[in-house]
């Protein structure tokens, strides 16, 4: 089993702004992508995004094929299962 997560706390205020500066981008140049689940749309996170002026990508629910991270998870799972088979014999 492979499980991963990223917490938004600190990411939006620190990492996102630093990344924008590093790449020389303005907030108007960015479209924010996030999942449709309730955990991604907390009142606190939504309020921050609105106050910051972040455009949020609208996309259909139940569409993991549109989310690039899902392809990475598939690759990681396949690699992990191959390693387990090699180790277990």
How would you describe the overall organization of this protein?
With 89 residues, the chain is mainly alpha-helical. It has two domains: 7-58, no CATH class; 62-89. Helix content is 48%, strand content 4%. The chain contains three helices and two strands, in the order αβαβα. A two-stranded parallel ribbon has the order 1-2. It is elongated.
Structural class: mainly alpha
- β-strand percent reads under 5%
How are the strands of the largest sheet arranged? 1-2
Mean pLDDT, rounded to whole units? 79
Largest sheet: 2 strands, parallel
Count the domains.
2
Task: Output the number of helix runs.
Answer: 3
Q: Percentage of helical residues?
A: 40-55%
**H-E order:** HEHEH
The CA-CA distance between the termini, in Å, is: 18 Å
Could you list the spans in which at least 5 consecutive residues all have pLDDT below 50? none
Number of DSSP-assigned strands: 2
Report the C-alpha radius of gyration, rounded: 17 Å
Inertia-based shape: elongated
Task: Chart the SSEs and their pairings.
Layout: H1 11-22, E1 31-32, H2 43-52, E2 55-56, H3 68-88
Parallel strand pairs: 1-2
Pfam families: DDE_3
GO molecular function: nucleic acid binding
Protein name: Tc1-like transposase DDE domain-containing protein
